[in-house]
Amino acid sequence: MSNVFIISHNYKDILSVSREEDQFVSWFSCSESGIGNSGGIRSARYLNIRADLPAYIVMITRNINHRWYNPWEDTIDYSSGSIFYWGDAKHHEKTSYDGFRGNRHLKNVWEKVLENRRSEIPPILHFSKVKSGLVKFNGLCVLTNLELTWFEDQGKPVKNYRCELSILDEEEVDVAWLHQRVKCEDLKTLNETAPRVWQDYIRGNTRKLDVWSRSIRSRDEQLPPEMSREAQLLSQLSELTPTQFEAVVVELFRNLPHVHHKITRTRPTADGGFDFFGQFAIPYPIHYELEFLGEAKKFARNNPVQPKHVSRLVARLGRGQFGIFVTTSYYTPQTQKEVLQDDYPVRLFSGSDIVNILRELRLTEQDGIKAEWLQAVLKKM
Fold this sequence. Notes:
It is built from eleven helices and 17 strands. By secondary structure, it is α+β, with helices and mostly antiparallel strands.
């Protein structure tokens, strides 16, 4: 019976090819090819083909503290079917950003993407480290963007790649397919046994994960693990007053890139049932503005948002307006079901979503939210 990786399922990673209970390194092992047991970007080589790309790539995001400091923080966003992943460059006096093995793979794959040579591109499997000895499969992915940017590694500026991965609409990946790629003897037959979603990608049709099938998110999907660095960010926000938290949320939305918008915070004394309002503009060539009302509520981690909280915002929406509800906590399944089933034009942002926005805007540091930015926001109130 073939081994299969299924989205959101956990697998034992005990760093052993020979032990039967291992469901990670040993599953990838095929003759003299495999992914090894260290590194965030790993790859398996072809056994019978000389190529400048590997047979497939495995990327791992660590969600737990590790004894080796990692300055790069990745983002997994199932709502958009996207993963934002940093390359493996670190501050090094003699090695540049493209001298690291993982970054070389990213660069070579991106060149094939730009040349539209999709049949030669290796599939990417993304996992996250749930805890020591356990990984979670996040999906079969393809590289859709690669940018070179700066980041700060322990106070030192470092160039590194940041890639955007699209999660394909495929619930499971048969390891036998990966082994077939490793043992393939001719590039012309490389993709004969590939799943349909991968064959569609080769033909130019990238079918991303169906977000509606995952619309009801669990508590764990909406909140970072307790005692994690991400949870500490939310704890820092919880120490703010309600009006300070509203100001921070408004400033975060103002700073979002690639979106034209106008956002205004309401007066605390008479907000009319909402905390901020504004417009998002879809840029050229559409030129269309969307009005919205928003609420920002600082709830404790164990105090979820109930239907009655969202209903208050929905009742204030006018024709053509949509709502934004932001909380440091999470939403009950019933709250999410009512928004979906009643077709409410409301987007729900949980604690993990706030963390992802802070990361995307590079507003985090080792000790929490960047102090200089936070002080500037509160000073403007």
